[in-house]
Design goal:
Length: 221
Amino acid sequence: MGFVVAVDGPAGSGKGTITKLVAEELGLIYIDTGALYRCITLYMIRNKINLEDTDKIQEMLKNINIELKRERNSDKAYLNGEDVSIKIREKAVNELVSQVSHVIEIRENITELSRKIAEGKNVIMEGRDIGTNVFPNAKVKIYLDATPEERANRRLKQNEEKGIKISYEDILENIKFRDNNDKTSNVAPLKQAEDAVYIDTTKMTIEEVKEKIIEVIKSKE
Ligand code: DC
Protein backbone atom coordinates (compact mmCIF):
# COMPACT_ATOMS: atom_id res chain seq x y z
CA MET A 1 0.00 0.00 0.00
CA GLY A 2 1.28 3.47 -0.90
CA PHE A 3 0.81 6.46 1.36
CA VAL A 4 -2.95 6.95 1.85
CA VAL A 5 -4.64 10.05 3.21
CA ALA A 6 -8.32 9.30 3.89
CA VAL A 7 -10.68 12.29 3.99
CA ASP A 8 -14.28 11.70 5.01
CA GLY A 9 -17.22 13.92 5.85
CA PRO A 10 -20.70 14.94 4.75
CA ALA A 11 -21.67 16.67 1.48
CA GLY A 12 -20.30 20.21 1.28
CA SER A 13 -17.86 19.86 4.18
CA GLY A 14 -15.09 21.06 1.89
CA LYS A 15 -13.69 17.65 1.07
CA GLY A 16 -13.60 18.11 -2.69
CA THR A 17 -12.14 21.60 -2.90
CA ILE A 18 -9.62 21.17 -0.13
CA THR A 19 -8.36 17.67 -0.85
CA LYS A 20 -7.65 18.76 -4.44
CA LEU A 21 -5.54 21.65 -3.17
CA VAL A 22 -3.67 19.43 -0.72
CA ALA A 23 -3.08 16.89 -3.51
CA GLU A 24 -1.55 19.57 -5.73
CA GLU A 25 0.66 20.95 -3.02
CA LEU A 26 1.97 17.59 -1.81
CA GLY A 27 1.99 15.79 -5.17
CA LEU A 28 -0.60 13.21 -4.12
CA ILE A 29 -3.11 11.64 -6.52
CA TYR A 30 -6.61 12.91 -5.80
CA ILE A 31 -9.43 10.34 -5.85
CA ASP A 32 -13.08 11.34 -5.51
CA THR A 33 -15.02 8.18 -4.60
CA GLY A 34 -18.36 10.06 -4.62
CA ALA A 35 -17.89 10.44 -8.39
CA LEU A 36 -17.80 6.64 -8.70
CA TYR A 37 -21.18 6.29 -6.94
CA ARG A 38 -22.51 9.13 -9.06
CA CYS A 39 -21.51 7.37 -12.31
CA ILE A 40 -23.33 4.21 -11.23
CA THR A 41 -26.39 6.31 -10.32
CA LEU A 42 -26.42 7.99 -13.73
CA TYR A 43 -26.20 4.59 -15.42
CA MET A 44 -29.11 3.28 -13.34
CA ILE A 45 -31.28 6.31 -14.16
CA ARG A 46 -30.55 6.05 -17.86
CA ASN A 47 -31.17 2.33 -17.97
CA LYS A 48 -34.14 2.44 -15.57
CA ILE A 49 -32.56 -0.04 -13.18
CA ASN A 50 -34.46 -0.39 -9.93
CA LEU A 51 -32.68 -0.25 -6.56
CA GLU A 52 -34.21 -3.61 -5.59
CA ASP A 53 -33.37 -5.41 -8.84
CA THR A 54 -30.31 -7.34 -7.67
CA ASP A 55 -30.00 -9.37 -10.90
CA LYS A 56 -29.89 -6.29 -13.09
CA ILE A 57 -27.52 -4.56 -10.66
CA GLN A 58 -25.12 -7.49 -10.80
CA GLU A 59 -25.31 -7.54 -14.59
CA MET A 60 -24.71 -3.79 -14.68
CA LEU A 61 -21.62 -4.08 -12.46
CA LYS A 62 -20.12 -6.55 -14.93
CA ASN A 63 -20.67 -4.22 -17.89
CA ILE A 64 -19.83 -0.86 -16.42
CA ASN A 65 -16.47 0.82 -16.82
CA ILE A 66 -15.71 3.94 -14.79
CA GLU A 67 -12.52 5.96 -15.11
CA LEU A 68 -11.38 9.07 -13.26
CA LYS A 69 -8.91 11.20 -15.22
CA ARG A 70 -7.13 14.46 -14.65
CA GLU A 71 -7.28 16.51 -17.86
CA ARG A 72 -6.07 20.08 -18.31
CA ASN A 73 -6.38 20.88 -14.61
CA SER A 74 -9.84 19.45 -14.20
CA ASP A 75 -11.06 16.14 -12.87
CA LYS A 76 -13.13 14.12 -15.31
CA ALA A 77 -15.32 11.08 -14.84
CA TYR A 78 -15.86 8.70 -17.75
CA LEU A 79 -18.70 6.21 -17.85
CA ASN A 80 -18.13 3.54 -20.51
CA GLY A 81 -15.96 6.00 -22.42
CA GLU A 82 -18.35 8.98 -22.19
CA ASP A 83 -17.37 12.15 -20.31
CA VAL A 84 -20.14 12.48 -17.70
CA SER A 85 -18.38 14.96 -15.39
CA ILE A 86 -21.25 17.49 -15.58
CA LYS A 87 -24.12 15.01 -15.83
CA ILE A 88 -23.18 13.30 -12.55
CA ARG A 89 -23.65 16.61 -10.64
CA GLU A 90 -27.23 17.13 -11.80
CA LYS A 91 -30.32 17.06 -9.60
CA ALA A 92 -31.60 13.64 -10.66
CA VAL A 93 -28.28 12.08 -9.62
CA ASN A 94 -28.12 14.09 -6.36
CA GLU A 95 -31.52 12.78 -5.40
CA LEU A 96 -30.74 9.11 -5.93
CA VAL A 97 -27.01 8.70 -5.25
CA SER A 98 -27.29 8.22 -1.50
CA GLN A 99 -29.74 5.30 -1.86
CA VAL A 100 -27.63 3.82 -4.66
CA SER A 101 -24.53 3.97 -2.46
CA HIS A 102 -26.30 1.85 0.16
CA VAL A 103 -26.93 -1.10 -2.13
CA ILE A 104 -24.52 -3.69 -0.78
CA GLU A 105 -23.39 -5.10 -4.16
CA ILE A 106 -22.65 -1.59 -5.41
CA ARG A 107 -20.76 -0.59 -2.27
CA GLU A 108 -18.60 -3.73 -2.43
CA ASN A 109 -17.85 -3.09 -6.09
CA ILE A 110 -16.92 0.58 -5.58
CA THR A 111 -14.85 -0.24 -2.49
CA GLU A 112 -12.82 -2.71 -4.58
CA LEU A 113 -12.54 -0.23 -7.46
CA SER A 114 -11.37 2.53 -5.08
CA ARG A 115 -8.66 0.26 -3.67
CA LYS A 116 -7.59 -0.73 -7.19
CA ILE A 117 -7.34 2.90 -8.35
CA ALA A 118 -5.11 3.67 -5.36
CA GLU A 119 -2.92 0.56 -5.67
CA GLY A 120 0.76 1.32 -5.16
CA LYS A 121 0.22 5.09 -5.37
CA ASN A 122 0.43 7.96 -2.92
CA VAL A 123 -3.14 9.18 -2.76
CA ILE A 124 -5.56 11.44 -1.00
CA MET A 125 -8.98 9.83 -1.25
CA GLU A 126 -12.21 11.50 -0.28
CA GLY A 127 -15.58 9.94 0.49
CA ARG A 128 -17.77 8.79 3.37
CA ASP A 129 -16.15 5.55 4.48
CA ILE A 130 -12.53 5.79 3.39
CA GLY A 131 -11.00 5.81 6.89
CA THR A 132 -13.51 3.34 8.30
CA ASN A 133 -13.94 0.85 5.47
CA VAL A 134 -11.94 1.36 2.26
CA PHE A 135 -8.57 2.01 3.92
CA PRO A 136 -8.91 1.29 7.65
CA ASN A 137 -5.09 1.24 7.84
CA ALA A 138 -4.60 4.62 6.14
CA LYS A 139 -1.63 6.53 7.51
CA VAL A 140 -3.63 9.75 7.86
CA LYS A 141 -7.37 10.09 8.48
CA ILE A 142 -9.25 13.36 8.43
CA TYR A 143 -12.94 13.97 9.15
CA LEU A 144 -14.25 17.29 7.84
CA ASP A 145 -17.52 18.76 9.04
CA ALA A 146 -19.57 22.00 8.86
CA THR A 147 -23.16 23.08 9.56
CA PRO A 148 -25.76 22.06 6.90
CA GLU A 149 -26.48 25.73 6.07
CA GLU A 150 -22.81 26.54 5.48
CA ARG A 151 -22.44 23.41 3.38
CA ALA A 152 -25.49 24.32 1.26
CA ASN A 153 -24.03 27.79 0.66
CA ARG A 154 -20.76 26.31 -0.51
CA ARG A 155 -22.48 23.84 -2.84
CA LEU A 156 -24.59 26.69 -4.29
CA LYS A 157 -21.48 28.72 -5.14
CA GLN A 158 -19.72 25.68 -6.57
CA ASN A 159 -22.72 24.83 -8.77
CA GLU A 160 -22.96 28.43 -10.01
CA GLU A 161 -19.32 28.30 -11.09
CA LYS A 162 -20.02 25.08 -12.98
CA GLY A 163 -23.21 26.46 -14.55
CA ILE A 164 -25.44 24.05 -12.63
CA LYS A 165 -28.77 25.65 -11.62
CA ILE A 166 -30.24 24.35 -8.35
CA SER A 167 -31.81 26.65 -5.71
CA TYR A 168 -30.36 27.12 -2.19
CA GLU A 169 -33.53 25.58 -0.70
CA ASP A 170 -33.28 22.50 -2.91
CA ILE A 171 -29.61 22.08 -2.06
CA LEU A 172 -30.18 22.42 1.70
CA GLU A 173 -33.06 19.97 1.62
CA ASN A 174 -30.96 17.48 -0.36
CA ILE A 175 -27.98 17.89 1.98
CA LYS A 176 -30.13 17.19 5.06
CA PHE A 177 -31.78 14.25 3.34
CA ARG A 178 -28.43 12.75 2.31
CA ASP A 179 -26.88 13.39 5.76
CA ASN A 180 -29.65 11.41 7.33
CA ASN A 181 -29.43 8.65 4.74
CA ASP A 182 -25.65 8.43 4.91
CA LYS A 183 -25.46 8.44 8.71
CA THR A 184 -28.22 5.90 9.30
CA SER A 185 -27.21 3.44 6.60
CA ASN A 186 -26.73 -0.20 7.68
CA VAL A 187 -23.95 -0.46 5.13
CA ALA A 188 -20.81 1.54 6.01
CA PRO A 189 -22.59 4.54 7.57
CA LEU A 190 -20.91 7.94 7.52
CA LYS A 191 -19.05 8.27 10.79
CA GLN A 192 -15.71 9.49 12.01
CA ALA A 193 -13.03 6.81 12.31
CA GLU A 194 -11.74 6.58 15.87
CA ASP A 195 -8.26 7.60 14.82
CA ALA A 196 -9.37 10.41 12.47
CA VAL A 197 -8.58 14.06 13.11
CA TYR A 198 -11.88 16.02 13.33
CA ILE A 199 -11.96 19.46 11.72
CA ASP A 200 -15.02 21.73 11.91
CA THR A 201 -14.61 23.92 8.82
CA THR A 202 -17.73 26.10 9.34
CA LYS A 203 -15.79 29.21 10.28
CA MET A 204 -12.51 28.36 8.60
CA THR A 205 -11.26 29.56 5.22
CA ILE A 206 -10.24 27.08 2.55
CA GLU A 207 -6.62 28.09 3.07
CA GLU A 208 -6.84 27.47 6.83
CA VAL A 209 -8.32 24.00 6.39
CA LYS A 210 -5.73 23.16 3.73
CA GLU A 211 -2.88 24.22 6.02
CA LYS A 212 -4.34 22.25 8.92
CA ILE A 213 -4.56 19.07 6.82
CA ILE A 214 -1.01 19.52 5.50
CA GLU A 215 0.18 19.95 9.10
CA VAL A 216 -1.53 16.67 10.09
CA ILE A 217 -0.04 14.83 7.09
CA LYS A 218 3.47 16.13 7.77
CA SER A 219 3.23 15.09 11.40
CA LYS A 220 2.55 11.48 10.26
CA GLU A 221 5.08 11.19 7.46
O1 DC B 1 -19.20 13.25 -2.13
P1 DC B 1 -20.47 13.22 -2.98
O2 DC B 1 -21.55 14.16 -2.50
O3 DC B 1 -20.20 13.40 -4.43
O4 DC B 1 -21.03 11.72 -2.80
C1 DC B 1 -22.24 11.29 -3.38
C2 DC B 1 -22.90 10.21 -2.56
O5 DC B 1 -22.13 9.02 -2.59
C3 DC B 1 -23.13 10.54 -1.09
O6 DC B 1 -24.49 10.81 -0.84
C4 DC B 1 -22.71 9.31 -0.33
C5 DC B 1 -22.10 8.39 -1.32
N1 DC B 1 -20.73 8.03 -1.01
C6 DC B 1 -20.52 6.96 -0.18
O7 DC B 1 -21.49 6.40 0.33
N2 DC B 1 -19.26 6.53 0.10
C7 DC B 1 -18.20 7.17 -0.42
N3 DC B 1 -16.98 6.73 -0.14
C8 DC B 1 -18.39 8.29 -1.26
C9 DC B 1 -19.67 8.70 -1.53
